[in-house]
Amino acid sequence: MAQERKSHPWIIGVVLVAAVLMIGVGAALLHRALVASGGDTAAQDVPRGGRKRPEAFGFTAYPTAFGFHSTETDSGEWSAAYQLKSGTARQVQDFYSGTLKVRGWRLLEEGPTRQQPGPANPNARPVTGIRSRWLDPKGGRVLTVLALDFPQKRSTGNVLLSSTTMDN
């Protein structure tokens, strides 16, 4: 008699957050490595993972945030991801829009996005949400806010904040 494989839907959320987190910082680091000259230390800027909240990087987490993951580099690039106990992608974007505008950040773009959950569940439906990009008041950094509606047993979605320099 074949055993039925037990599914853990929350794993999809964790895998999705981790994949988006790694892609965000990884792409910036790959770009830096490709344009760096042979002896440039920026090409050796290895990301470090952790469980820092967005507040560690100067930004507030959405009020129902939990399950934090982070990545940062010596060059100041970072990303912080978390899950939501309640709230939608639109509510998260409105929250960050309000706080960023007050601080002088300028909206570069905002629009819908679709993300395919990772290989843990290849038959999962794509996850939808909203992605926005913001320019800091001094013009040297870009912040990406990715909010995904991804209802699970204990969460309603995932959020990723990612900050890179303008030269990336």
Task: Summarize the structure in words.
With 168 residues, the chain is an alpha+beta fold. It has one domain. The protein is 24% helix and 33% strand. The protein contains 2 helices and 7 strands; from the N terminus they run αβββαββββ. It has helices spanning 9-35, 89-102, and strands at 48-50, 65-72, 78-84, 106-115, 127-135, 141-149, 157-165. Strands 1-2-3-7-6-5-4 form a 7-stranded antiparallel β-sheet, sandwiched between helices. The chain is globular, with a radius of gyration of 17 Å. The model is unreliable at 4-12 and 20-42 (pLDDT under 50).
Structure, briefly:
With 168 residues, the chain is α+β, with helices and mostly antiparallel strands. It has helices at residues 9-35, 89-102, and strands spanning 48-50, 65-72, 78-84, 106-115, 127-135, 141-149, 157-165.
Major β-sheet profile: 7 strands, antiparallel
Order of helices and strands: HEEEHEEEE
Helix share, percent: 10-25%
Indicate the structural class. alpha+beta
- Radius of gyration, in angstroms, nearest whole number: 17 Å
Strand content: 25-35%
Overall shape: globular
User: CA-to-CA gap between the ends?
Assistant: 55 Å
* Domain count: 1
Round the mean pLDDT to the nearest integer and report it: 81
Taking strands numbered 1, 2, ... along the chain, how are they ordered across the largest sheet?
1-2-3-7-6-5-4
Regions with little confidence, pLDDT below 50 for 5+ residues: 4-12, 20-42
Give the number of helices: 2
The total of beta strands comes to 7
Oligomeric state of the chains in view: single chain
